[in-house]
Design goal:
5-stranded antiparallel sheet; alpha+beta; single chain; two-stranded antiparallel ribbon; 11 strands; globular; Phosphorylase Kinase, domain 1
Length: about 140
């Protein structure tokens, strides 16, 4: 399996396509790798490859030493990037921080904000995933 094309990058990792038709996500930080792998293991245990009509990459393999996750490639609509997510307990932020975050995200998502709110609540209630790093590049509707 050879890396081929960069599919994305961000503050936590770089995502490359492979010659096997999968994607590998190479992490810069162990904490982000651990959070993302824990979320993918939870999603796998729950048999989730689609959530509320959004495709979710499936875990294929991982390497703890190299901090690499191999996953399926998904097309839109999709839900990606669990490196900043927390399982079972949300981090504790002051009310004014949450209020500002919600205001900023509502502006970012525009008319899709109600769908995002529903998605976040369902992820939390049904899977125990508290998704924090959201933007239209990670949650893409049709």
């Amino acid at each position: 399996m050879q890396p081929r094309l960069r599919l994305g990058f961000g503050k936590d990792a770089t995502v490359l396509s492979t010659s096997a038709g999968t994607a590998i996500k190479i992490f810069d930080r162990r904490d982000a790798f651990g959070r993302e792998l824990a979320c993918y293991l939870r999603l796998t245990d729950c048999g989730i490859h689609e959530f509320l009509g959004l495709h979710v990459p499936g875990l294929i393999n991982s390497d703890v030493d190299l901090m690499v996750i191999e996953m399926t490639v998904v097309s839109r609509p999709f839900l990606l990037d669990f490196a900043s997510a927390h399982l079972d307990e949300a981090p504790d932020f002051p009310a004014e921080v949450i209020e500002q975050w919600e205001h900023d995200k509502q502006e970012e998502f525009g008319q899709n904000w109600p769908r995002v709110v529903t998605l976040l609540a369902a992820l939390k209630e049904q899977v125990g995933i508290h998704l924090l790093d959201i933007h239209p590049g990670n949650i893409l509707f049709d």
